[in-house]
Amino acid sequence: MDEGFQVSAASFTRKYHKGRLPSCEVAILGEIEHGNFLMRAIKMIKALPKLRSQVKEADIIYAFGVDMGLLCIISAIGLLKHVAVEIGDIRSAQVQKNLKGRLVRILDKYIVSNCKLMIATSIKFVEEYYQKNLKVKTKTIILENKLERQQSDRQQKTKTGFLEHNIVIIGYFGLLRCSKSIRVLTRLASNYPNNIKLFVAGYSLVDDAKFAKLISLKNVEYFGEYKSPGNLFEIYSKVDLVWSVYPFPNVGELNWKWARTNRFYESCYFRKPMIALEGSADGDIVREHKIGFTVEDVSEDEIVRCVWENSHENFELYQQNIFNLPEEVYLYTQEGKQLKEALIHMANN
């Protein structure tokens, strides 16, 4: 969303999926390791002088995540600068009921309460966690991970196997980090080699051997990593249904109930019915609008049977319903203007 700001960025790098790179100048603060929180904290502290020099030059400070929010708050001490923090996830450590969880929540509350503005990608993060649980009163706006309108690519007609050969092509896209999803899809493709095809695209974080087994099957095609939004039309045009199942949660995790996946917004945009996890944020709206079907977190065999039985039924109904879905569900409309106004107000007060 181009709203007229002059933007510069500061970030850490890590050996991970690159994602979409910003179109502005980026100052590298250092390299951190994924998941190694102690080393991550040490390197972030060492980066404070460099970050402070960036903060001095800015009128508005926008931090992605509470860890960067804390660094920006520290870097802005004595500078009379306000910080906005974007919340994209609520991790399991934040909702644990043990001592570690309580300490994390104390720090979390301190950080967000000392920010002038909170931008949350889900209203549930605000209502269920920050307001209900932490009693945070920071001004908030909601900025979901919707898509920007792209030319007319979603209007282009694409042919898929189901329409021509009674073969259902299921797509699994994004950060491929759910081991149970990999096992379920491997069984599904193995059990129905003549009726199910899988088209997989993205960056795998699961066990190499298990992922290799999946993509080695004759009825599975692996695209590799892809760029968003550049490759989205290409990959979504190849499938009938999208595996939009949020990674099957561990006990105590709540993010799956509150956050919609990127695959949800993308599937709506490209008018592809989806398979979602029952009780998840995606699953609730999929069920409400009948734009696909849901699976429960049960045994792998039961999930495979559910997908097989439902993937051949009501397909035309799901597709018609997703064509009729209001665009504001998955496309940005007034959010850019609202964010701009909130940031300008923050900077001037």
List the helices and strands and how they pair.
Layout: E1 8-13, E2 25-31, H1 37-46, H2 48-56, E3 61-64, H3 66-75, E4 83-87, H4 92-95, H5 99-113, E5 117-120, H6 123-131, E6 140-142, H7 161-165, E7 168-176, H8 179-191, E8 196-204, H9 208-216, E9 220-224, H10 232-236, E10 241-243, H11 255-258, H12 262-269, E11 274-277, H13 281-289, E12 292-295, H14 300-311, H15 315-323, H16 335-347
Parallel strand pairs: 1-2, 3-4, 4-5, 5-6, 7-8, 7-10, 8-9, 10-11, 11-12
Helix pairs in contact: 2-3, 8-9, 8-14
Sum this structure up briefly.
By secondary structure, the protein is of the alpha/beta class.
Strand order of the largest sheet: 9-8-7-10-11-12
CATH architecture of the largest domain: 3-Layer(aba) Sandwich
Overall geometric form: globular
Kindly report the average pLDDT value: 90
Number of individual domains:
2
Radius of gyration: 21 Å
CATH domain class name of the largest domain: Alpha Beta
Biggest sheet details? 6 strands, parallel
- Number of helical runs? 16
Question: Could you name the CATH homologous superfamily of the largest domain?
Answer: Glycogen Phosphorylase B
Helical proportion, percent range: 40-55%
**Measured distance between first and last alpha carbons:** 24 Å
Fraction in beta strands: 15-25%
Q: How do the SSEs run, as a string of H and E?
A: EEHHEHEHHEHEHEHEHEHEHHEHEHHH
Structural class: alpha/beta
The number of strands is 12
CATH topology category name of the largest domain: Rossmann fold
Residue windows where pLDDT falls under 50 for at least 5 positions: none
Keywords: Transferase
Protein name: Glycosyltransferase family 4 protein
Organism: Flagellimonas hymeniacidonis
GO molecular function, one term: transferase activity
